[in-house]
Write a structure and sequence with these properties.
Tumour Suppressor Smad4, Diacylglycerol_kinase_cat_dom, transferase, disordered C terminus, four-stranded parallel β-sheet, about 325 residues, alpha+beta, ATP-binding, 10 helices, ATP binding, Rossmann fold, twelve-stranded antiparallel β-sheet, about 30% helix
Length: about 325
């Protein structure tokens, strides 16, 4: 388990990155409330809608040991965007406002502005690994195949905010049109020294899991850990709607690991290709078309966590003198 640390009390600057397209629940009032709550702790806040300006400012404040947090107001895509545009070690505070924020659920964080302000003031942080896919960081997972096709169709037709009901049409369209191309997964086994791709398997569905959370509460890799320096790769062999329903039932019942069609490997690096082409998605956002070269970036993500998480996971961290 990664060490929980506490940010020094001298770090007083909090930066906001707000995604105005983030889900039906997005409300500017929540961001305003968080500004007001942080003012009660005498913390300095700055808001940005331009990610490049935020990147520059975050780097400056981190370098001069003034940065307390960068607030990610949005969904999992907003968190990934910030991770890709802030320097390693910049603490992210999550204000979940998107259609789905699975990382916030994993960390048991809410959209209560007063609660998040207290978390930022307390300053407890925990580091997690991130995956890197074709140069882009992701926190949760990469999906190749049918689910990625649904995401691709959803975003190609996107008009404004996304709701859970927005997925119905792209799911139906994918059911009618997706052809389940064969996916070739080449990987370096976890126990192997080095990252040479010495092993291979084929499948029609592939999920690369870092933190074990997926939409709808599905848990594809129950044993995955977000801070173990490894990626969990879960695949299903056959491609059809019927097979997909069977696999889904297995996951819902927690029985998929015993299925003959299911494979689970752990690795630090893998490459996925397809013939013919197939899409991939990263943390629920479209990534493009395969091939995909993925590796692990240990401890790349630093997030603020609750006092409760700090107490239950590492009681000694709570009394750290650094933030007193």
């Amino acid at each position: 388990m990664s060490v929980i640390q506490q940010i020094a009390a001298t770090r007083r600057h909090v930066l906001f990155s707000v995604n105005p397209r983030a889900g039906a629940r997005f409300r500017g009032e929540l961001v305003d409330q968080l500004h007001d709550e942080l003012a009660k702790f005498d913390l300095t806040t700055e808001a940005f809608t331009d990610i490049q300006l935020l990147r520059t400012r975050a780097a400056e404040l981190l370098e001069t040991e003034q940065l307390r947090a960068v607030v990610a107001a949005g969904g999992d895509g907003t968190i990934a965007l910030l991770a890709n545009h802030t320097p390693p070690g910049a603490p992210l505070a999550i204000l979940p406002l998107g259609t789905e924020n699975l990382l916030a659920k994993y960390l048991e964080l809410s959209s209560d502005a007063a609660v998040l302000a207290q978390i930022i003031s307390d300053g407890y942080t925990q580091q997690f690994d991130m995956g890197e896919a074709n140069g882009q960081l992701f926190s949760l997972m990469a999906g190749c195949g049918f689910d990625a096709e649904v995401v691709r169709r959803l975003h190609s037709d996107r008009r404004g905010n996304i709701h859970h009901w927005s997925y119905i049409k792209p799911i139906l369209d994918s059911i009618r049109n997706y052809e389940y191309p064969e996916l070739r997964v080449r990987y370096a086994p976890a126990e192997q020294a080095g990252d040479e791709l010495t092993e291979e398997l084929s499948a029609r569905w592939a999920f690369v899991v870092n933190i074990p959370r997926y939409a709808g509460g599905l848990n594809l890799a129950p044993g995955a850990e977000g801070d173990d320096g490894l990626l969990d790769v879960c695949t299903f062999r056959e491609g059809s709607l019927w097979n997909g329903l069977v696999y889904l039932g297995g996951v819902l019942l927690g029985q998929h690991e015993s299925m003959q069609d299911y494979s689970h490997i752990r690795t630090r690096r893998l490459v996925i290709t397809a013939e013919p082409e197939a899409p991939f998605q990263l943390d629920g956002d479209p990534g493009g078309m395969l091939p995909l070269d993925i590796c692990i970036r240990p401890k790349r993500l630093t997030v603020l966590v609750s006092h409760y998480r700090a107490v239950t996971q590492q009681p000694q961290a709570v009394e750290s003198p650094a933030a007193k």
